[in-house]
Design brief:
heterodimer; A: alpha/beta; Rossmann fold; 2 domains; 6-stranded mixed sheet; 4-stranded antiparallel sheet; B: alpha/beta; MetI-like fold; 12 strands; 49% helix; 12% strand; elongated
Chain lengths: 262, 661
């Protein structure tokens, strides 16, 4: 579905800094791949390269056999947009405060001139239902919704064009732990129902260890380790992966301390 | 109070309409002047010169016998058409130029911005006089001259707004959805940029009306015999003593339009919250709230007496020890929809010496409010009642109801606070060293500058910043989020606090940085023998740090007790739900998280009885009768739960089908 081959990218300007270095990874259809790293490690830049918002200096990004950065022409680009969509970290920034939920979800359908008003309205209803929002939410504006609901709207909008690949950039970082769990469950369900490939970017290894099929760990722009989730979390090979695993907050209390406290 | 308090929204609305009334009148009269005027405004009747107001001429006649009322009405028409024409040109040109510059960015933006700066800094009237001097008087030249400098503020507003929006991920999202440039500019950038432009336009109406009148007054605007307000003033000036009705009506009309336009513009721009001239004229509506506070909050010495005289509740393990902070029946209310709604309801908690208490709950549960209320760190509209006794030597000091001056002797001296968003707390224009220096001086530990700086560097080192001399010279934006948070901790430690309040200290940070900061706080607690209140939404985070936990839901503590007891034997269904939501490494990928149905964020006044009952899988009819008290659990006096059911078995349903959040 998604193939990233030896991609390097830098941030513009005269003193350009290479933030993504020689990254090779892939996401198959119906697979969730976690990309884990600290802020500033280049994972968001990689997401922008994958979606075509940022041009890489070297390497190839292919989505379903099409080279993302070699697409020419409006029609081909639009066709590509329908394949790949993205969910951003902060839904309050990516949804327009001026649009109702219904208008926001309808926007991509209007852009691509899909269906007439009746068809679009029916599709918006389906999408609201898909992400678990009640129909009446459609008439509200983003600020009248909770963070979790906003993120559901953002996901519904991303799914309106029936993409086969979803790039999620820290989609639950801004949410409460209890709400985060619900959004993650939604992604799990969507993957099963729509056979969606998903690149899930986060700084939190704990989140992807329960969600992703495979995990890639990124440090300073390089993938330092990638593998199946069970292998990576139980037998980490790279020191950085081990330090990420050690940082995960756990609910277990050391037995000695427990004894002292009680 | 209820009648008065119920209608602030409507009253604000009425106020806006009242302010807009002169402008609406101006517009209506201007449009309908030919219909409304009783006579031709330019028709001379030398036999009826300088007649005082009468039924035939309600505003009298001038020296040429022209009907004054008709002239005023037609004057409005001229002012209105010039104003409308200038605004149309200025707004369109300004918004388009500004939006284009903001969207294109780069060199175009820099060039356009310089032009805007120059035009804005030009004295508008001089430009107008110069243009008219060259072109000659007349309505068209007037419009041209006024438009020439009025467009710049609109361009500046539109540019700033569009440049701001351009950086937001909103546009990235739209591009990914396939939206073209035209759609992004037309649908998503121009409309939000136009809104503040229109607000500015309402002020500009006054400026333009005044400008037209001034120019006509000087004989450079609308030429006689046309009726124009400034023109009428000039003509009336000669008869100030004999015929007052000539100069006053146009003067009143100009003043009314200009005042209404300025006040309306200010009101629209400031909304309800920001300071406004109107606030000086009319005292704030929420003033009625303060007597409640004075009545309810006992004066400091009396409260201190009360808390010290009552025997301290015995705490197992450390009999007779006074807690560092002992909060009893803390209630915080905010005005909402004309009523006072509780955000925190009769909450009680205490922090023992050297202990870390974690207040845990979802967004909107009231946990942060409960932690900050004792120290007066809330919005000024908040009303705090109850008691919060801070240990003070052998006795205690009551924190609720202190005056700001009394409070300053405690905050920053004996209590330190660390907030979630270090980017918002630190002043971007001051160095880290300057921030900490100030905290050191405030705590009375400074002295001469080098001495203060030595303390500052020591504090930064204590907060785990490896190179304090360099860091002290850096600005907040040069540091990472984790380092800024350490700098904030250094500021809080400047007063060697007995109690540190940390509000979501690690929530915006990466997991690894978060772990380091939690370790730092744990180390500091040991080294400095500090007590701490940590607020967080993540039970996993507080596990690293806390000794005891209070789980907050809907403005009340629903479960509290030693960390180990709450984590291993959670009693309240909500606590169980929170624990289930924490991801656990080692769970097979694809395993669904266990989630709670429904949505949080309700306040204690939104439900009767237990706040969690609407979401609780175990709720029974009696749950909604009254809020269940926080009761000690069998066999563990310190572990308390506010649940009628006291469930023993795992209860929260697997949330696969559940979709609300």
């Amino acid at each position: 579905m998604l193939e990233i081959v030896e991609v390097s990218a830098c941030h513009g300007g005269p003193d350009a800094v290479t933030v993504v270095k020689d990254v090779t990874m892939s996401v198959a259809a119906g697979e969730i791949v976690g990309l884990v790293g600290e802020s500033g490690c280049g994972k968001t830049t990689l997401a922008r390269v994958v979606t075509g918002l940022h041009r890489p200096d070297a390497g190839v990004v292919r989505v379903g056999e099409v080279d993302v950065h070699a697409i020419r022409g409006r029609r081909a680009l639009r066709a590509h947009r329908r394949q790949v969509q993205m969910v951003f970290q902060d839904p309050s920034l990516t949804l327009s405060a001026r649009q109702t939920v219904r208008q926001a979800i309808e926007e991509p359908l209007r852009i691509h001139r899909l269906g007439d008003a009746r068809v679009r309205s029916a599709r918006v209803g389906e999408l609201l239902d898909l992400v678990g929002l009640k129909p009446e939410v459609g008439d509200r504006r983003p600020r009248q919704l909770s963070g979790g609901q906003q993120q559901r709207v953002a996901i519904a909008r991303a799914l309106a064009l029936e993409p086969q690949l979803l790039i999620c950039d820290e989609p639950v970082t801004a949410l409460d732990v209890s709400v985060q769990a619900k959004v993650l469950n939604l992604l799990c369900d969507l993957r099963e129902r729509l056979d969606l490939g998903c690149l899930f970017i986060t700084h939190d290894l704990a989140v992807v260890s329960q969600l992703a099929d495979r995990i890639a760990v990124m440090q300073d722009g390089r993938i330092v380790e990638q593998g199946r989730t069970e292998d990576l979390t139980t037998r980490p090979r790279h020191a950085y992966t081990r330090s990420l695993l050690a940082a995960i907050p756990t609910l277990e209390i050391p037995a000695v301390e427990d004894a002292v406290r009680s | 109070m209820t009648v008065e308090a119920r209608s602030p929204g409507r009253r604000a609305w009425i106020g806006t309409v009242l302010l807009a009334l002169p402008l609406i009148l101006f517009a209506v009269v201007g449009v309908l002047a030919p219909v409304l005027s009783p006579a031709d405004p330019t028709a001379n009747d030398l036999t009826a010169g300088l007649l005082p107001p009468s039924s035939e001429h309600p505003l009298g006649t001038d020296q040429l016998g022209r009907d004054q009322l008709s002239r005023i009405l037609h004057g409005a028409r001229i002012s209105l058409s010039v104003t409308a024409a200038v605004l149309a040109v200025a707004l369109t040109a300004g918004a388009v130029i500004g939006a284009a510059a903001g969207y294109l960015g780069g060199r175009v933006d820099r060039a356009v911005s310089r032009v805007i700066d120059v035009v804005v800094s030009l004295p508008g009237m001089l430009v107008t006089l110069a243009v008219i001097g060259v072109q000659g008087p007349g309505v068209e030249n007037l419009i041209l001259a006024l438009s020439l400098w009025s467009w710049a503020p609109y361009a500046r507003i539109a540019r700033a707004r569009v440049a701001d929006l351009r950086k937001s991920p909103h546009l990235d999202a739209l591009r990914l959805l396939g939206a073209g440039r035209a759609r992004i500019l037309g649908r998503h950038l121009l409309p939000p940029a136009l809104a503040p432009c229109l607000v500015y336009a309402s002020t500009d109406v006054g400026t333009i009306v005044l400008g037209v009148a001034t120019l006509s007054f000087l004989g450079l605007g609308v030429a006689p015999p046309n009726a124009e307000w400034g023109q009428m003033l000039v003509e009336g000036r000669a008869f100030m003593d004999s015929a007052w009705w000539l100069a006053y009506p146009p003067g009143v009309a100009i003043t009314a339009v200009v005042f209404a336009s300025n006040l309306l513009g200010e009101r629209l721009a400031a909304g309800e919250e920001r300071p406004s001239v109107l606030r000086l004229v009319r005292p704030t509506r929420t003033g009625s709230a303060w007597p409640v506070r004075r009545k309810a909050a006992p004066s400091a010495p009396r409260a201190a007496e009360r808390t010290t005289s009552s025997p301290p509740e015995t705490v197992p393990g450390c009999p007779g020890e006074t807690p560092v902070l002992r909060v009893r029946d803390l209630t915080v209310t905010y005005p909402r929809d004309g009523e006072r709604r509780r955000v925190v309801a009769e909450m009680s908690y205490e922090v023992r010496r050297g202990e870390v208490l974690a207040l845990v709950g979802e967004t909107g549960s009231g946990k942060t409010t409960a932690a900050l209320a004792p120290f007066g760190l809330l919005d000024p509209y908040a009303v705090v009642t109850g008691s919060a006794a801070l240990a003070n030597g052998a006795g205690t000091c009551e924190m609720v109801g202190l005056t700001p001056a009394e409070r300053r002797r405690i905050n920053g001296h004996r209590v330190g606070v660390v907030f979630q968003d270090s980017g918002a707390v630190l002043n971007p224009l001051r160095t880290i060293g300057a921030h900490v220096d100030e905290a050191v001086r405030n705590a009375g530990r400074g002295g001469r500058r080098p001495a203060t700086r030595r303390v500052t560097e020591e504090l930064l080192r204590l907060a785990g910043l490896p190179d304090p001399t360099t860091v002290a010279r850096e600005f907040p934006h040069q540091l990472s989020g984790g380092m800024r948070q350490r700098a904030q901790i250094a500021m809080a430690l400047a007063c060697e606090p007995e109690l540190l309040i940390a509000d979501e200290p690690t929530s915006a940070l990466d997991v690894t940085v978060q772990a380091q900061l939690l370790d730092l706080l744990a180390r500091l607690r040991e080294e400095l023998a500090m007590s701490m209140v940590v607020v967080s939404h993540d039970l996993g985070v507080v596990t690293r740090l806390a000794d005891s936990v209070a789980v907050v839901y809907s403005g009340r503590i629903v479960e509290s007790g030693p960390l180990a007891a709450v984590l291993t034997r959670p009693d309240h269904p909500y606590t169980r739900g929170l624990l289930d939501a924490v991801p656990r490494p080692g769970t097979p990928p694809g395993t669904r998280f266990r989630t709670m149905p429904g949505q949080g964020g309700a306040g204690p006044d939104d439900t009767t009885g237990c706040g969690f009952a609407p979401r609780c899988p175990l709720a029974v009819a009696s749950c909604v009768d009254a809020a269940p008290p926080l009761e000690a659990l069998a066999g563990a006096a310190a572990h308390r739960s506010a649940c009628l059911r006291h469930p023993g078995e795992p209860t929260v349903a697997v949330g696969k089908g559940d979709t609300s959040c």
